[in-house]
Each structure stands twice: as C-alpha cells, then as structure tokens.
Amino acid sequence: MAIVRPFRGLRPTNDKAAEVASPPYDVLSTEEARAMAQDNPLSFLRVNKAELEFPEDSDPYTEEVYQRGKENLHKLIDQGVMIRDDKPGFYLYRLTWQNRSQTGLVALTSVDEYDRGLIKKHEHIRPEKMHDRANHISFLEAQVGPVFSTFRATDAIDATMKKITAEPARTDFTAVDGVRHELWVVEDQAMIDELIAGFAALPALYIADGHHRSAAASEVCRRRREEKSDFTGEEPFNFFLNVLFPDDQLRILPYNRVVTDTGNLSIDQLLDKAADKFDIAPQDGEVNPREPHQFGMYADKKWYLLTSKGGSFDADSPTRSIDAAILADNLLDPILGITDPRTDKRIDFVGGIRGNNELVKLVDSGKYALAFSLHPTTVEQLLAVADAGEVMPPKSTWFEPKLRSGMVVNLLTE
DSSP string covering 308-351, please? Predict the structure, then answer.
C-alpha cells in the first residue's frame, strides 16, 4: 500500500503566493538566485537558498546560512505572509504549461515506506547534497522543498481529483516563465478519505525528481529516532512532503549532451567509427529525434541523424536500452573515452527546455566541439528501471514544468 497522510500546511496568502513561490533551490546557481530575489524580499529563495544573502565566497553549508533561512521563514510567518492551516488536509497542485496540465496530490508520505523500497528510487545520491538538505530541515524544523513523485494512474484517484478541481482553485497565478500554478485545499473529510483509500490500493510510489530531498528526510528521521528511542512512528519526522502526479500526465523533456573535444579525431573519423553501431545520415536542418534510439549530432555547423542499429544494445535491459545509456555505451565511451559522464569534465548536459538553439550556440562558440540531441526518456522507462531496482543513466530525465517551493510547507512542529 502507499500511505498518504494529511497535514496542516503552511502556505502563502493568495495575494502573496506569486511573490513567495520560487523555483527549486537546485535549479539555480547562487548568482541566479541572488538576481531573482534581489527586488523581492518575500521570495522563498531567501528560505530555501539563504546563501544568496551572504558574500559571494561564503560557504553555503554553514550553520549561519541555515539559521538565516530559518529567520527568513519566520519573518514570512510573523508578517502574516504565510499562514498555517487550522486542521490537517490535503492539497491539489496543478501546473499548466504549453497547453498541458498535470495535477498532483500534496501530502506527507512515509519514511518507513521509502526505506523499505515502497517509494522507489532510480538515482544515486551525493552524500554532501543529502546532508545539506537534512541539515536544512533540522535547522528550520520544516520541509520546505517538496519531493516530486509519480504513481500509476487509477480511475478512482482520477475521479476524486476531478471532483475537487471542479471548484475554483484557492490559489491561482501565472509565473514569469509562463507556468500557471493552481492550488486547491482539500478540507472535506469524505474527499480526504477517498484519496487515502485510493492511494492505499497502490503497490508503490516512484520518485521522479527529488532524490536528495527524500534521502534527507530519511536521514533526519534516523537522527531523531536515535535521539528519541521511544518514538511511536507517528511523529512528524517520520513523514516527508511529497507531490504525487499520475504517470499519464507527466512530461519528460530530452537531456542533451555537449562535449568539449573529439578526442583528436576528425569529424569524418569519428563518424566512421560510429558507423559500426549507428546508421548515419547528414541532415539539412537541426535534428529533434522523433523516435527512441535516434540521436542528433551537431559539429562543424552540420547536423547528422544517428540511428541505432539492431543488436547494438540490450533491448531487454530496462537501463541499457535508455538512449542516454546507448549513446554512452556505443559512442561516448568507446570512441571519445568518456567513461564516467558523472565526473568527466569533457561533457556537460543541457536541459531540453533550452532547445537545439542552445546546442548550436555552445558548439559554434568554440567552447564545445560536439552536441548530441536525444529523444526524451519515457515515464514507462523510468518506472521499469525503478521496478527493477536499477539506476537510471546519469542526466537522463528533465522534468518540466518544475514545482515551485513555498506553495505548501510542512512544519515538523505539532
């Protein structure tokens, strides 16, 4: 079963939500966050990325930074900009972008279910990032950045969500990036019970984005249980803030690659070597792969379409059949010598939201020699990897649109 728990959310007043809600802490550099928050004292970046208020060379992982984030959160509360709901409930959060909508349940999910693998993962985590978020939660006594998860859609959950969203949203604004954000407060006990029952029928939930935030919640729970040996399992630290979207509504964009050099090969030599695994055809214009296992390559102001040959990858492997893995296994590693895309400084990654224009710009600038455009990973592939207990290839999913932080906060105090 999948446990979803109602809670007393802390959220901005409707008239201030657009000023408060901010992009996630990990999609902006400190410089970008500083510029975004510069003229906005209410920006939630001041809570979630408080290092923006310190000198440029400051360590973002110090107690002073976490303490500033806590102070800024309490300023929003003391000023009446953010108010905690009187009784536990759920929230529905809808994002609409480019004429597509996705509606998720904002709820608390179980650390125990996460630790037991019932909330499934598909990424490795970096310990320093996990400890940063765990310390952030501990200092603030709050989970301020939600995990973004998915589940296999069911008619029962869909029907309940449609009943709730038939009414006007409590909060409704469109951000500067064109994404519309709507929030419904679910206070009716019958609707709450329906949602609890609907999710209880699911065998598993799946983390889409937020592996470090979920791991941080688990770490905080572990620390607190060590401190409180008589814990009951019902304390707030046993649960974490999650937004759960049905899998048939999610959108994954490509995660493209750029490479600094050709490994002392000419483009013709590189293509000759690649022809062992790919059918290669020059193109008159940019390449946006229309099917899985196709790739665009841009170099020397020319585009090429690379189509994987039959038998060049393990089609039965949930992980090695993903395009990011195919490109790595058949070209980046054997031809260019990029054996570990996570650490190799010769490769970088470009979210598909930036489009092929960004790839062309980066290569034409001379900073990079090659660019590769990929077909998006599908949600079905992500679920298959998680079900198999495997790990996705590095940088293989780019979810868009992003959740805004500060829409709903979970305080760890009763």
Answer: EPTTSS-TT-TTTTSHHHHHIIIIITTTT----TTT-TTEEEEE
Which has the minimum average pLDDT: 146-160, 308-322, 385-399?
385-399
DSSP H helices in 201-319: 211-227, 267-274
- Tell which residue, 275, 244, 28, 60, has the closest CA to residue 152: 244
Angle at 202 between CA 199 and CA 206, to 5 degrees: 95
Q: Strands 119-120 and 205-209, how do they pair?
A: parallel
Q: Which residues pair with 151 in a beta bridge?
A: 246
Residue 98: pLDDT band (50, 70, 90) is very high
Measured distance CA(96)–CA(83) in Å, rounded: 25
Take residue 141 and report the two structure tokens written for it.
Answer: 């006594």
Give me Rg for the CA atoms of the chain. Answer: 23
Token pair in block for residue 324? 């990011």
Q: How far apart are CA 223 and CA 44, in angstroms?
A: 26
Give tens-digit pLDDT for 133-164: 999 999 999 999 999 999 999 999 999 999 99
Nearest to 254 by CA among 283, 289, 279, 278: 289
Q: How many CB atoms lie within 10 A of CB 35?
A: 12
238: nearest Cα among 414, 384, 51: 414
Query: What is the enclosing helix (H) or strand (E) of 92?
Result: strand 90-97
Burial 295-325 (b: 16+ CB within 10 A, else e): bbbbbeeebbbbebeeebbeeeebbebbbbb
φ, ψ at 365 (rounded to 5°): -70, -15
Q: Is there a contact between 4 and 107 (Cβ–Cβ < 8 Å)?
A: yes
CATH entry 3.30.1760 includes domain 255-375: yes
Question: What is the domain partition of the chain in residue ranges?
Answer: 4-251+400-411, 255-375
Query: What is the maximal distance between C-alpha atoms in the chain?
Result: 68
pTM: 0.92
pLDDT class for 354, splitting at 50, 70, 90? confident
Share the mean pLDDT of the chain.
96
pLDDT digits 0-9 by tens, 70-89? 999 999 999 999 999 999 99
Cβ neighbors of 282 (< 8 A, separation 6 or more) are 302, 303, 304, 305
Banded model confidence at residue 355, pLDDT cuts 50, 70, 90: confident
Mean pLDDT of 352-369: 94
